[in-house]
Amino acid sequence: MSSTEAAPEGSSTSETVVPPPTEPPKPKKVVVKLKNIGDAPVLKNKKFNVNPTDTLASFTAVMRRHLKIESNNSLFFYIDSVFCPSPDTTFEVLARCYSVRSTGDEVVELQYSITPAYG
């Protein structure tokens, strides 16, 4: 085969094309909407964007600072005013199982209290 002839279709050439490495897409943040129950302090900002890999325990630590609640006082989170998710649950799992579609976004709605609110 001369240098001016094209290689037939399906034949391999000595050069292989390697696609450029692509970065995995960044996980989409989970929107968390909070509502106070009972005598819990009211937040100015009720919506938070949380990493899907964050756990409820890490979110609780952040919320304690926002609400100015000391570590020796309780802070409870509830889903659908029914149950309290485990502290080691990630927001990815909460979004997949309990998100509510609101204005085009999937939102995890949590209620919070400083005293036990539901049985």
TrEMBL record:
Gene3D superfamilies: Phosphatidylinositol 3-kinase Catalytic Subunit, Chain A, domain 1 (3.10.20.90)
GO cellular component: Atg12-Atg5-Atg16 complex; autophagosome membrane; phagophore assembly site membrane
InterPro entries: Atg12, Ubiquitin-like_domsf
Pfam families: APG12
Chain intervals with Polar residues compositional bias: 1-14
GO molecular function, one term: Atg8-family ligase activity
UniProt-listed GO biological process terms: autophagosome assembly; autophagosome maturation; autophagy of mitochondrion; glycophagy; piecemeal microautophagy of the nucleus
Region (Disordered) residue spans: 1-30
UniProt entry keywords in alphabetical sequence: Autophagy, Isopeptide bond, Ubl conjugation pathway
Family classification: Belongs to the ATG12 family.
Function recorded in the entry: Ubiquitin-like protein involved in autophagic vesicle formation.
Protein name, UniProt field: Ubiquitin-like protein atg-12
Lineage, opening ranks: Eukaryota, Metazoa, Ecdysozoa, Nematoda, Chromadorea
